[in-house]
Amino acid sequence: MISVSEAIQHIENYCQPNKIIEKPIQEVLGLVLAEAIVSPINMPPFKQSSMDGYAFIHNEISSFTVVGEVQAGDSKNVVLQEGEAVRIFTGARVPDQADTVVMQEHTSVEGDQLTINELPKKSSNVRPLGEQIKTGAIALEEGTVLNEAAIGFIAGLGLSTVKVYQKPKVSILITGNELKAVGEVLEEGQVYDSNSITLQLALHRLGIDEVEIVKVEDTFEATKTAIKNQLDFADVILVSGGISVGDYDFVKRGLEENNVSEVFYKVNQKPGKPLWFGEKEEKLVFALPGNPASSLSCFYSYVLPVIKAQLGYKDYHLPRSTAKATNDIKNAFGKTLFLKGIIENGQATQLTGQASSMLKSFAVANGLLIVPEDVQEIKKGEEITYIKLS
What we know:
CATH architecture of the largest domain: 3-Layer(aba) Sandwich
CATH class of the largest domain: Alpha Beta
Largest sheet: 6 strands, mixed
Shape: elongated
Number of domains: 4
Strand order of the largest sheet: 7-4-6-5-9-8
Low-confidence stretches: none
Helix content: 10-25%
CATH topology of the largest domain: Molybdenum Cofactor Biosythetic Enzyme, Chain A
């Protein structure tokens, strides 16, 4: 059995980005940019009006002759002399000689004669060529998480594809003959499967939408075959349950029979002691405890960092911070404790219902309070480290 810090050190060795692929910008929401984008154009690509109004050469005069009109999208370049103005609209090209645009609300017009009632400062309402970005400048750095604004910016540069890190394919193997799918009728001795839903949605929050869920019968041959099949499909396999030492826990043997190399098994933590991690030909396998709270706790601490790293995130661990404990928190187990808690106004409160089978407290927790294995007690008012869940 290894410590939490040792387990995390092992995990760090596998926190590597996936291969780089090129995808249409409509398909990259939430993905991470794998290569810096160099702007191919100036933005805006011409001197541009930011208002509906009149463009003119600023010379401290307020009366002008209107000699033309430029709409958004027009390619013409009206030549202006001093004392002349052109009607112009938002987004339109400002004539080369013009340096200022006056809002139409600040003018009056009779025929072709324009009077400016409130003279703006020189350069007002004109967006310079390349104001947002110039040709050859870095538009977005490698490692940028692509949200809708970033993708819109890329579209404005005229780029239809970008290079991103490929999403991993993930499969979830659910073991346990006692488990029934949601919506089915429970018989005596059965419970509903929540782990497949919880893990699938946790992956979905990371942008992983290609997830295969397989229910496995509690026999060695079924377990061995399911693992073999998923090693052919997935980059990351999550096995739920069957990793302890019961008569019907066949996962560890099934992994060994499929030549999955063990990296570590059992971590000195509560919940989640019977955690198994291994790899085969760059395929990663996490055998998670079957108890729902244990499974989710292990996901946050060990699986999530690997998935985020594969997606190209630089900061792939959930953020940590500290708060003051609102009550005494004892550790009589000599294990690292991950306790569901509420953090509010710098105060950390341990919730009731910490059993590894209980998801109810997880449902309202916004942090996991961490008590190290060598700490027997954190007293009320002392600092406690926590993992931010929301």
